[in-house]
Amino acid sequence: MTEPSDKPMTEDRREFLKTGAVLAGATLAPGLLLYGVADGRAPEEGASSKVRWGLLIDSLKCGEGCHDCVTACNTENGLSGNTGPQDTQYIRKLDIKDLRTGWVHSLPMMCQHCENPPCVDVCPTGASMKRADGIVLVDRHICIGCRYCMMACPYKARSFVHEPLHDQNPEVPRGKGCVESCTFCVQRVDRDLQPACVEACNAKGHKGMIFGDLKDPNSELSQVFRAVHNTEVRADLGLNTAVRYQGI
Amino acid sequence: MASLRKGLWLIVLIGGLIALLAAPGAVVAGVDLPRLEHGKGDRCVDDEDTIRRKHPDFLKHHRDETMRNGIRTTKYSLKQCVACHASEKTGSVAASKEDFCVACHSYVAVHLDCWDCHATRPMKPQVAAQPAPSASPAPIETGVKP
Fold this sequence. Notes:
The structure holds 2 protein chains of 2 kinds.
Chain A lengths: L12 H16 L24 E6 L9 H10 L14 E7 L5 E6 L8 H5 L5 E3 L5 E3 L9 H5 L6 E2 L18 E2 L5 H4 L6 H8 L5 E5 L6 H8 L15 E4 L2
Parallel strand pairs in A: 1-9
Antiparallel strand pairs in A: 1-8, 2-3, 4-5, 6-7
Helix pairs in contact in A: 2-6
Chain B lengths: L1 H21 L25 H22 L8 H8 L14 H8 L6 H4 L22 E3 L4
């Protein structure tokens, strides 16, 4: 419950407050942590279940023909950017048309990082997994490329690598014979950065994506969740997705 | 006179023998060990004997810790190995027979799968921007009421 003893004594005010919050949680209800701290994680600390990463996409701010999030994703993860049936796409940009009114609008579709992910249920090797902080990943070391998860995913979020790859991004190892999908840019999240798509969307001024901790009531994401109605795609499946949409 | 000449011959012979033994320092008796490029890595995270014997275990343990638990320490990280040991000639740990990983692994005939997925070169400081993806597919038509 207390900080490790080998930490230097020069802790800043933030650290002091963190410890205070943890102790307060313990006093109120031993064994139950009421309030977790989302950021500022040390490399040796690992992902924590006190955090659940989530993403809110405002599809009304999402421009038709705008691919800024997709481009940023491709650059970060070393994807080819091709959109053929055998090409990897972590984010697919969809244009949705209402047949009755003719209203067309656009949104990015990617791994929804479900709380109860069907891909994890069906994986025969345990390669498809959910990290403590809710990020759904494929452990390529033990993925046998059976593609059950691709069939199980209701969001068509996963891709299979059909051809040998070269010159991968050192932070994003990927190769032939494995299934892969959006990782919330886990390599960036672990460094307290936002996923590449969110950063690009905000940097280009669209401001259509908010990334944050769903379990932290003070995060921007939680505040917007409380204020504005949002939609879970295929809520009927009861997957409790971490990616939610506004305006659909 | 004859004994002097005999003595001279003996000195020449001994000198020659010493020269023969001392000169070819590179030719060591026994097996021909692999010669590898260490890159800029002059000292390892552990002593060499431990690393030589146990690096597969260290790497496998660390890969699971990072992949499954999000622990991103740099000791025993494959990325860190590459960062230090990429050859100065090829910029890689697995591009030529002398490069750090391949030198020993080809010597002992152990095939490495690591490089099917992992980069053999250290992180580049700047990643080039990719072109925008091709035209998006036709809109998906839904019967959703407004």
